Amino acid sequence: MIWTDPGVWSGFVFIFACFKSDVKKIASIILLLFVQVFYAQSEAAEKKAVEKIINDAAKAFDRGEYEKSLSLSSKALVRAFRLDDDYLIAHSYNAIGVVYDEFSESKRAIEFYKKALHYAENIDNDVLKDFINSNIGSVYYYSKIDVRKGIEYYKKSLYYATKSNDSSQIAYAKMNITAACFYLGHFSEGIVYLNEVKGFIERKGQPESKLSYYGLLGLYNTHETKNPAIAEGYYRKALEIGQRNNMMSFMANTYDNYIAHLEKYRNFRQADSLRKIYKKINDSIYLENRPGDLDDTAMQIELDEYKAQLVKIENANEAQQKKIRDSRIISVLFGILLLFLLTMVYMLYKNNIFRKKINAELTKANEELRAAKEIAEQNSQLKTQFISTVSHELRTPLYGVIGITDMILDEHKELVNNEQLNSLKFSANYLLDLVNDILQMNKMEDKRTVLEEIDFSLQEEILTIRNSLQFLADNNGNTFSTVIDPNIPERIKGDELRLSQILVNLASNALKFTHNGHVKITARLNAFVDGKYLIDFTVEDDGIGIAKGDQEKIFEKFVQIGRKEGDYQGTGLGLAIVKRLIDLFGSSITLESAEDKGTRFAFTIAFNQADEKLIETITPEVQQHHMKLNILVVEDNKINQMVTKKIIERNGHRCSMADSGDDAIALATSEPFDIILMDINMPGMNGYETTKKMRAMGMTTPVIALTAFDKKEVTAEAVTAGINDVIVKPFEPSLLFDLIEKQLK
């Protein structure tokens, strides 16, 4: 270890200077003036007595009477606590820490030093703070507990030495920092502090400080500049100072560093010669400093006993301090009670006025908030009504456009590849998708979307999605495949429609932005936990990909990324709907993508087990109804009449038309019908009222509502009116006949 002066002067010695602290004024309305003066004089005398005990403890320590030193320091601590004097308490704790430090009880030494520092920080005495911080730093450094922490305390010591303008202590603190930095190998940092003390050491330095200074310079030139000649010159200069002043302990450390230097530069003969001298010095120091009759084991026992005594002292002091605090609190309470009561009365008066003012403002604010809430609710309702009405008014003509287009294509096969006709159908379908997306987003924002639990076949659902999107894959030259884990049950329970919306949106996006590539939907069973099937879904493609900077915002509404001329003109709602639906399932979606390499979406959804009774009754194939049906269509729109009639007749059934509810009732009473297709939104008597009248007349013919409104908006009222099922226009003909088949079973 590198020995430096502050380790001796401020690390392992007592602070002997006496600092008079101001006598605390004791205020009491029942004590006479002469009692106060007498008490103050007695307190001053007691402080001097405690300071003398601490000085006696220091002298005992210097003589090697460590047990006596510790005993005196403990007595001083008890009396310092009685005086409630932070300076004397700090001084006493520091003295106790020095004894433990001497016996390498580093942990206990640090504990007492830190207690000393705690009380020292309560007073304005920078010299005391300087010494205590230096002592703590020395324990961390010399015991090699934490050299870096030792440097921190040395720097605090330097701060207080600088504040007290003590040149000697400033020099010692800087050399302490230098020694610790050199130990860590931080020579460039340490030499800065050493250079700063050069002038003071050469002019006013004591022999001890000069010996340490030149020893550190030798060490610096040994390891940093690697100049052996200069280093040896500094070592010899340090040893000359030590020999001249009989400083054996300091010389031992310098010899140690000098020998290491000679061995480093392979001068083994001189190193062996110096080692013999070094051994003699070490032996003489040991014999000189060894306590006469003190047995180490016995001393350790005494230290342990004093530990217990100190704990008792501190506990007693804490109890005493509590009593003092309680007494002070009572005195203060008596002194301020009247003022407090007067203040409270005044505050109550002011608070009452303030409360009335605040209540009036809050009442006004509440009224404004209530009005704003009502306006917001009205606006939300108007928005919902507006979207619902617009969607209805758009779906009605779209039903006609799509239906007539299909009729033309069906009747004129030569127009199957007609660009204008296909563009018309595409535009109509696109507009229909737009309406559906806006409706879906509006419902989710209004929190009107609720998951349904129905039994369905995941395999059939994914196959249906693939078949419905195959035309899009063919248009862009893509291969479109699906992979379904065979471990997934034949039927599961969950919201089939919402799952379909998610997969259709993701797959259609992939197909639209991939050209001459591959798109794949995968479903794999992850686990079966607590009666739920956790199924992992992925939709991946090798298309244009998504830039890293755009990946966070693609799930926002109306955001469109990577659109190029001729690309699909979407609404930017598809992925926003996907994310909200997956959130509704209590899951989350992940995205992996790279530009020109492709995109992969993944999510996991939990499904319940399907009902066993339903599984047993389900047959693999739906029996088709081959009878020629007599169907009544109730529709006020002529174009829609034509489209619906064509769909029915094209499938081999007979169709009768009614323009109004009254006409429908008249026809239904004049001849039997197998099924009635009822428009809801009709002038005069609407579809609900017409059906109610039919049911009131005893008609049991199944009624399927044809409506351009959202299905969930009309289902409840339709059931109340006696309508059996609802289908939304425009619709796929196959879906209509599936519903008819279902009602006729």
**Gap between N and C termini, in Å?**
100 Å
Overall number of domains: 5
Q: How many E-type strands?
A: 12
Taking all Cα atoms into account, the compactness measure Rg is 48 Å
User: Biggest sheet, in brief?
Assistant: 7 strands, mixed
- Examine the secondary-structure arrangement and name the CATH architecture of the largest domain: 2-Layer Sandwich
Helix content: 55-70%
CATH C-level category of the largest domain: Alpha Beta
The third-level CATH topology of the largest domain is: Heat Shock Protein 90
Average pLDDT score: 80
Identify the overall geometry.
Answer: elongated
What class would the helix/strand composition place it in?
Answer: alpha/beta
Description:
The chain has 745 residues and is α/β, with parallel strands linked by helices. It folds into 5 domains: 20-124, Tetratricopeptide repeat domain (Serine Threonine Protein Phosphatase 5, Tetratricopeptide repeat); 206-292; 369-448, Helix Hairpins (Orthogonal Bundle), CATH 1.10.287; 450-617, Heat Shock Protein 90; 630-744, Response regulator (Rossmann fold). It contains 25 helices and 12 strands. The chain has helices spanning 6-9, 33-62, 66-83, 86-102, 106-120, 126-142, 147-164, 167-184, 187-196, 198-204, 207-223, 228-244, 248-264, 268-289, 296-411, 419-445, 458-475, 496-512, 574-584, 612-617, 638-650, 661-670, 687-696, 711-721, 733-744, and strands at residues 454-456, 479-484, 492-494, 518-529, 532-541, 589-594, 598-609, 630-634, 654-658, 675-679, 703-707, 725-728. The strands form 2 sheets. Strands 1, 2, 3, 4, 5, 6 and 7 form a 7-stranded mixed beta sheet that branches. It has a 5-stranded parallel beta sheet with strand order 9-8-10-11-12, with helices on both faces. Helix 24 (711-721) links the parallel strand 11 (703-707) and strand 12 (725-728). Helix 7 runs antiparallel to helix 8 (167-184), helix 8 packs antiparallel against helix 9 and helix 8 packs parallel to helix 11 (207-223).
